[in-house]
Structure formats: C-alpha cells, structure tokens
Amino acid sequence: MVSPAATYAGGKIAFDTQGSGSPTLIFIHGWSCDRTYWTGAFNALAKHSGVVALDLGGHGASSSDRRSWTIESFGEDVEAVAEYLNLGRVVLIGHSMGGDVAVAAARRLARRVAGIVWVDTYKRLGTVRTAEQLRQILEPLDGDFAGVTRARVRDMFAPGCDSELVERVAANIAAAAPDVARAALASSLAYAGEVPGALRELNVPVVAINAMDAPTDIDALKRHGVDVVLMPGVGHFPMLERPEAFNGILASVVARFR
Question: How far does Cα 39 stand from its chain's mean position?
C-alpha cells in the first residue's frame, strides 16, 4: 500500500505499510536514498510485525515543495506518517543519516518509541567535527556533485561486493537533487553534536548494527547507552550487501523491544 501523508509544510510523504502487530517498525532511509533500500528487510520483517517504510521529503516519491532539508524537518516527516497511520508503539530503524532522523523523530514521538536501531550510523559518539573537517566534506559537493558523490559511495562498500550493486547504488545516490542533498548532509553532520544529549533526554534503548570491518568505538557508544552489534563482511549498506544475514540480525534486535 502506498499512501500520502501531510507534512508540517503541507507537502506529501510517500510510504508503504504491511503486516501487523506492535510495536510497528518504521524504516528510515539514509542520505539521498529512498524507501526501496529497505525492501528486503521490509518484506522479511512484515511476516512478524507491522512495518512502514517512507520516503523523506525531497526523496523518492515524496514531494520537494519546501525549503527546509534538515534532520529536524525529516523527523517531522516520520511523525506525520505515524500520526496519519495512528500508530501506537514504534521502533525507529534508521540507516546512516536516517539514524539521526530516528533520534529527531523519537524526540517528537516521545513515549511511543520502544527503541531505536541505527544501521551503520555512528562508529563513535562524543566527538564533533571541526569547521575545516566539515568544509572538506561539503565543499567538493559544490562542484561536480554527481562525480564526487559516485566516487564516495563506491568506497562505502565492502571489498569484493557485487559490482552491479555498487554501481547501481552509486548512480542512484549521485542522481539526487544537489541542493537537497547538500543541505541534508550539512544538517546531519551538525546534528551529531546533539545526539548524546538527545539520547539522555529520550532514555530509550538504542542498538547500533555496524559493519565489523570498519572500527567502532564500542566503549564510547556504550557510555551513551548504545548497544553494539557488529556484522562481518559488509560495508555501509549491510541490508543490500548481505540481506538475509542482515534481516536475521535485525529481527533479533527488534525482538528485544517487544
């Protein structure tokens, strides 16, 4: 089922919903992606839970008729869908930037949130990028956005990953609207400084599913109340690189919140 939901700005948010049972799992895609990145996990977990996958504003089939592309505005998109569907308890599952959106949405949904799952969102917490580090990340996007983005995405996969998958994802993300993508990335990078305080405020269980091959500061995450599950043989897109293994891990994590 695909339905529209009104956002705070009067736009429309596209989403799919399937299955039944509480808590409902809400899948939130990453930077310049869309809800189809979750298709495998969405279908697998719908066998045992109610599931929702949405396109954030400016992404996928959702409308782009607004000017705010921030983590907070994306959190409002998630809240809008939860309200439209009259959802009770929810688990927010966010990939990459979607993990930040999950935190922002949780601040709005408050007591309805049973837990948060980050999928390769943070390797550590408590450190903030300098202005120079931010400049080095963002400034290249102002030139050849598609070329820079395509090269960066290719480097996010595990060695030996299916080349067709790598090129398909790299091309898809590189085709994003540059103004939306740059603003969203800048907001996500800035939001990292808010996350530790937000987690204290929320006081809900958080689990991070991270790629094993890239170093994760497990102690730093645990100091902020985040449990860590490491997954071998994947890069930044575990739900695409090893879908069956990922779905099993995610199902076991979600079971903790029931």
Answer: 14
User: What pLDDT sits at residue 127?
Assistant: 83
> How do residues 240-258 score in pLDDT, each as one tens digit?
999 999 999 999 999 999 8
Rounded Cα distance, 211 and 102, in Å: 19
Contact (Cβ atoms closer than 8 angstroms) between residue 12 and residue 62 = yes
180 Cβ partners below 8 Å, 6+ apart? 32, 58, 59, 64, 69
177-202 residue pLDDT tens: 999 999 999 999 999 999 999 999 99
Superfamily of domain 2-129+192-255: Alpha/Beta hydrolase fold, catalytic domain (3.40.50.1820)
Contact yes or no for 116/206 (Cβ under 8 A): yes
Structure tokens given for 215: 């170093």
- Residues 74/11, Cβ–Cβ less than 8 Å: no
